[in-house]
Amino acid sequence: MRIFISHMLEEGRLAAAWKELLRRISRGSLVALHASAERDDMVEPYLGDSKVVLAILTSRSCERPEILWECGIARGKGSKEILPLLFGCRPGGPLAGLPSCEADDREQVAALCRRLLAAAGIDEPSDWDGALDTYIEAIRLSMHALRAQRRIAPAPAWALEAADFGEDAAQNRWVAFEAHSRLSRTYLDLQEYELALPEVNRALAQVPDDPILLHRKGLILLGLGRCDEAKKILAQLGRLEPSARFDPEIAAFAGRVHQGLYGQTGDPSHLRSAILAYRRSYEKHPESYHTGVSVAHLSMLNGDYRTATTVARNLVPLCRELQEQAPVSFLVDFALGELYLILGERERAAESFARGLGRAPRPSARDLAAALSRVRALFGAGRMGQDGLGALERMLG
């Protein structure tokens, strides 16, 4: 059964948490889809194929036009069930009268999940409690950010709809926050780090303890090569939310900080710290394949081949399962390619990388360069030899 998750683009973490929860409790039978970039022509087909629409609503997004638009399309396409997922808000307008779920309440989330499983004819899984606990942890940082943002007076409705905020709107703290937050995310996506940094600082001036913005600033600093400053952001996140180190995205950030410091200093303690950061999250969230791949990859570089191969063997079935669930990103194929390389299965590795090259959208030049760098690092780890490297260099170069 397919489920579409409608959400404000800046709240993609909440959508991703729901997507992973539904995948885990149904062992992949509940296929959740959500927009991960700007709205495009794929939204309407996804809505047409989905039986249920989950609308993520927060104090920022409860009346956003794109969510109302997607729910309106779903209603126009037939008997779609629309279920608002409420994160500390009460919706108005057309969504106000619909049955809803308090999405930060474990019991209400469990009840909704059981209803979806029953509708799809799926039995409750053996790791039910673990899946729910992981979901609650996954939304914790986002909820912290929402609580921080509530201190800002809301923007007038006209300002949220305006294409050009204008001088009057710019005096409203909420509008200033929204504008600078969106600009910082856009510049980060474009890897325009010099432009992104002042924008994220302006957004943080409105909400200094927003962990999502702090995480974004840390990524920007890493992009600028300022790893020492990124490490300070990591420490600040830990003080705001001690459980943040278990969050897969924060763990990945911590790993990148220490990996960057290792590259700049050559101090092996930073490599060990990077492995620890990724491993801490992977052991807490074994379904987060990207953190697990980083554990295996860096363990190979550190000469810990036993850990690398053990983690790789455990991850291969999950990545192969994800390969068969549309839509699939080339990132899954490239991750599986790395795992096969670690296991010495070079023909399978080449097949997986080739499969990723055929995905739409195709990997960018930056994506290919990053993949090739990781492949070369594995071949240079001292145990693999060079057989097969040339073919992969030609494929990814």
Description:
The protein is α/β, with parallel strands linked by helices and 397 residues long. The protein folds into 3 domains: 2-138, Rossmann fold (3-Layer(aba) Sandwich); 140-224, no CATH class; 288-397. It contains 20 helices and 5 strands. It has helices at 12-26, 43-49, 65-76, 106-120, 128-138, 140-149, 157-161, 166-170, 173-189, 193-206, 211-223, 227-240, 248-265, 268-284, 289-301, 305-323, 330-342, 346-357, 365-379, 389-396; strands at residues 2-6, 31-34, 52-58, 81-87, 101-102. It has a 5-stranded parallel sheet with strand order 2-1-3-4-5, sandwiched between helices. Strand 3, helix 3 and strand 4 (81-87) form a beta-alpha-beta unit. The longest helix has 19 residues, at 305-323. The model is unreliable at 158-164 (pLDDT under 50).
> What is the domain tally?
3
Q: What order do the helices and strands follow?
A: EHEHEHEEHHHHHHHHHHHHHHHHH
What CATH first level of the largest domain would be assigned? Alpha Beta
How many strands, which pairing sense, and closed or not: the largest β-sheet?
A: 5 strands, parallel
Number of strands: 5
Percent of residues in helices comes to: 55-70%
Compute the CA-based radius of gyration: 22 Å
Stretches where pLDDT falls below 50 for ≥5 residues? 158-164
Q: What do the pLDDT scores average to?
A: 87
Count of helical stretches: 20
What is the CATH homology-level superfamily of the largest domain? Toll/interleukin-1 receptor homology (TIR) domain
Known CATH architecture of the largest domain: 3-Layer(aba) Sandwich
